[in-house]
Design brief:
Keywords: Kinase, Transferase. The chain is of the alpha+beta class and 301 residues long. The protein folds into 2 domains: 2-108, no CATH class; 112-300, 3-Layer(aba) Sandwich (Rossmann fold). It is 26% helix and 34% strand. The relative contact order is 0.13.
């Protein structure tokens, strides 16, 4: 059995998970167990879609054809994996730490955001946006400037006594080759996120391994003209509207929780952080400028 730390959870897994930090904490029992076994289709699920089934008792089955089938128990305490390829293939971990882990989060009352997170001072700052918006690339820019990484792609949040906390996830960034080349990171010897993709798992030594309060969420949008660039704080309903778009696998959350509970979770998070639109022309040539802009904004409070 292998033991790891993931977003505040102690994970016991028969499957080696090189993305994660080995557990070095207390001797308590695992919060989440991962094992290999058959994962048959659910009988009479109340939700049945091409990739997802949900049973009346809350059990979830997710399957990515040619990769693996996964089952998550109603409390988000166990994941069973039936691989359709070698069990150590990175493709299996892509969906394990993506959609499947989102199910675990929703079941445990945690809100996953589609965001990368860095540490600035004693706070966490998140970068959210649609796929391809540059979340991981921006985090990598901060990494090159000496900042620590807290999470990439999926950021797990919870509210503690009114404070929004972000849990440490993986000590790695997922970056496309063009970003790696543009930021002068080596790709040789790195594992690809999926065999057919030019996207790599880049290990990160500067990893913030403790939960941090979330200060701000920057919503990344692309400008096609310099006149349309802006950085603007969002308030009220606008901040809430953007937060809803930042929830990782939000449609899955609706299916598991219903819109009311999911919106309530998002409302508690958005009420405790600063929400900022960051719209700019996407180019690595301005990396230093963007990092300085955000760092000054956070330092100024």
């Amino acid at each position: 059995m292998n033991y790891y730390a993931l977003c505040g959870l102690k994970v016991a897994s028969v499957l080696p998970l090189p993305d994660l930090v080995s557990w070095a904490g207390d001797g308590r029992q695992a919060d989440l167990s991962i094992r290999l076994d058959e994962v048959p289709e659910l009988e009479n699920p109340h939700t049945s879609r091409p990739l997802l089934q949900i049973a009346d008792d809350g059990t979830c089955r997710f399957e990515m054809k040619a990769v693996a089938a996964y089952r998550v128990d109603p409390e988000g305490r166990e994941i069973v994996i039936a691989p359709h390829m070698p069990a150590d293939a990175p493709d299996i971990r892509v969906f394990l730490f993506g959609t499947v882990f989102a199910i675990v989060c929703f079941r445990r009352g945690l809100l996953p955001l589609h965001a990368s997170v860095v540490r600035i001072g004693d706070k966490a700052v998140a970068f959210s946006g649609v796929s391809g918006a540059g979340k991981s690339t921006l985090a990598a820019m901060f990494l090159k400037r000496g900042y620590s990484i807290l999470a990439d792609d999926v950021a797990v949040t919870e509210v503690r006594d009114g404070t929004v906390m972000v849990q440490p996830a993986f000590p790695r960034l997922k970056l496309w080759r063009d970003a790696m080349d543009g930021l002068a990171f080596e790709t040789e010897g790195l594992e690809r996120a999926r065999a057919q993709l030019e996207k790599f798992h880049m290990p990160v030594e500067a990893f913030a391994g403790e939960p941090l309060p979330l200060a701000s969420v920057y919503y990344l949008e692309e400008a096609v003209d310099p006149r349309h660039e802006e950085m603007r704080t969002l308030l009220g309903i606008d901040a809430f509207r953007y937060m809803k778009t930042a929830v990782y696998r939000s449609k899955l959350g609706y299916n598991l929780l219903g819109s009311g509970p999911l919106f309530a979770m998002a409302g508690r998070v958005v009420g405790g952080v600063r929400s900022v639109i960051l719209r700019r022309i996407r180019t690595l040539a301005r990396a230093e400028e963007i990092v300085d802009l955000i760092a000054r904004h956070e330092t100024a409070g």
